[in-house]
Write a structure and sequence with these properties.
There is one protein chain. The strands form 3 sheets. The protein has a 5-stranded mixed beta sheet with strand order 1-2-8-5-3. With 410 residues, the protein is of the alpha+beta class. 45% of the residues lie in helices and 8% in strands. The chain is built from 13 helices and 10 strands. It has one domain: Cytochrome P450 (Cytochrome p450), CATH 1.10.630.10. The N and C termini lie far apart (83 Å). Keywords: Heme, Iron, Metal-binding, Monooxygenase, Oxidoreductase.
Length: 410
Amino acid sequence: MTGAAPAAPSPFPSAAACPLFSTARENLFDPPAEIRTLREREPLSRTTFTDGHTGWLVTGHATARTVLSDPRFGARAEPGHPPVPRAAILEEDPADPAGTPLPQGAPGHRRYRELLTAQFTDRRMGLLAERTEKAAEELLDAMERAGRTADLVGDFALPLSSLVLCELLGVPAPDRERFRRDLAAWSAHGASTDQVTAAFAGLAAALHGLVLRKRAEPGDDLLSGLVHGAGNLADEELASLAFLLLAAGHETTAGQLALSVLALLRHPGRAAALRAEPSLTEGAVEELLRYLGVVHHGPTRAALEDAEIDGVLVRRGEIVTVSLAAADRDPTRHPDPDVLDLTRDATGHLAFGHGTHRCLGRQLARVELRAGIDALLRRFPRLRLAVPADGIPLRHDTQVYGVHRLPVAW
C-alpha cells in the first residue's frame, strides 16, 4: 500500500507566526498599545484573533477607507465563525441568544438600506432633536430630585438612548417604561442567559405588536414610514429591522455619551470652554467621536477574491478587521492625534465606518450626543467625578468600549 500524499501547504500562516489581536486598553481613552505599535510599523498587518484564527488588521486611516469601500471585501464574514465579537455598527446581523428571524443580509442588503435611509430625513431629525433635548432635561430633573450624585450610565446615558429610540420608532408613551426596562436588561453587564433571553423575548413581542399597531394607526415615525412606504415589507421583516436599529443604536450611542462626559471631566478646561461657548458643541462631538473610538474591534470584512492592498496580497477567504480607534489616531490624517482638541476639524473620522455599510443612524447619534452633553454641562456647572478615575470599571470585555458605571456629583 502506498502512503498518503502529503497535504498541500496552507497559504495562510499559522497563529503562532502572528501577533495576538488585543482589545485591552492601558488607559481610559487610547487604543491598545499593541495596535498602536502595529499602526506605526505598517497600516495592514497579520494578526491572530481571539478565536485562534489568523487574518489581517487594518490600523491606518487611508487603508481603512480603502478596505471599507472596496467591493472585493464583503461585510459578512464566515458564517458562525467571526474572528472577534461583532461590533454593533448596523452592518451585520447581531449575535443574539434567541435566534432573531432577520432578513438575509439585512441591513447590508441594498434594498433594506435604501428603505431605511429614506426614513432618516432632515425633517425627522429636526423633530427628534427637539424631543431629545426635552428627554435629556427630564432625565436631569429626575437626577436632581434624587440627590446630588448619580450614575451617568444608568441614570442618564442608557435611558436617554432608550427614549430616543422610542421616539424614532413611535413607541406609545404607556409602553416606554417596559420597553426601556427590557432594553436595559438585554444589554446589562453580567446578566444571566435567562435574563437576556427573557428581555429579548419581551422586545421581540413588543416590536411585532408595534408593527401591527402602525399598520392600523400610522404615526409620524420611522416605523410607520417603513410600514406604509414603498417597500411592502412583511411584518417579520419590519420587526427585524426595528430590532437591528435597537441593537445598533442603544449601547453604542450611550457608551459614546458616557465616555465623552468622562473625557470632558478629565479635561476640565475643555468642559469649561463648551459651557462658555455652546456653539462649539457640534464640532466637539466630532472630535470626541474621533478621539474615543468606542467600537474597539471591527468592522470585519472577508476577501471575496484575491486583492492587493498597499502592496500586500490579501487572499480570497481571508478575514480583515479594521481598528477604527487606531485609524482615527493616525497622525497622517489627524496631526497630534492623541490630543483632545475640541476646535479641531475632525471631519473624515471613521467612528461610523465608511463606504456602503456606514452607520445609518449616524445623524441620530449626533443629535443625541449634542443634546446630552449640552444639557449636562448647562445644568451642572460643578459636575465632577464622585470616585477616583482609576476606580471606574471599563468595558474591555464587551462589543462597545466605555464604562459600566460613571459615578458623578455636582
